[in-house]
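Q: I have 166 residues here and want to know how they pack in 3D. Can you give me a structure?
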Amino acid sequence: MSVLLTSTIASPIGTLHMLTRGETVLALTHSGFSNLLSTLSPRELEEKITKTGKVPGVTEKIIDYFDGNLKAINSIKVKQPGGDFSQSAWVSMRKIKVGTMESYADLAFRAGSPAAVRAAGSACAKNKIAVIIPCHRIIKSGGAIGAYGWGVDTKIWLLKHEGALS
């Protein structure tokens, strides 16, 4: 088993705190190291956690995304705990094209359970790898922006950055 790595990345939306195992991102948050630890299982909490300046193969892709290469984050490997529907929803979110938005109902359909609109919203809320798993691209069916764990202003900034809003 490899060592867990933590690092921080300066971004236009604030300092991002990242937790990885090798080149696989386990969590990405703007709310600090303690929030990263809350994503770990008791077994993972017993593992060695090392702070690093950069995670090769990951940090530069996130920086490239914020510098305008919007597809740079698409190849980043991710892994987070969650039930079958959440896993399917997170995979589906990564298939939403940059510069577009889809509704929670669209996400439920993509994830294989068209009636699970509330579950789609829950998958967005539980997403610990925001930006890379782009839950910011999910909006309400009527076109309203909807909620976002990092704040609505950040969601709007990300959607403008990607060209989905002007």
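Q: Anything worth noting?
A: The two ends are 45 Å apart (CA to CA). The CA atoms of residues 23 and 56 lie 7 Å apart.
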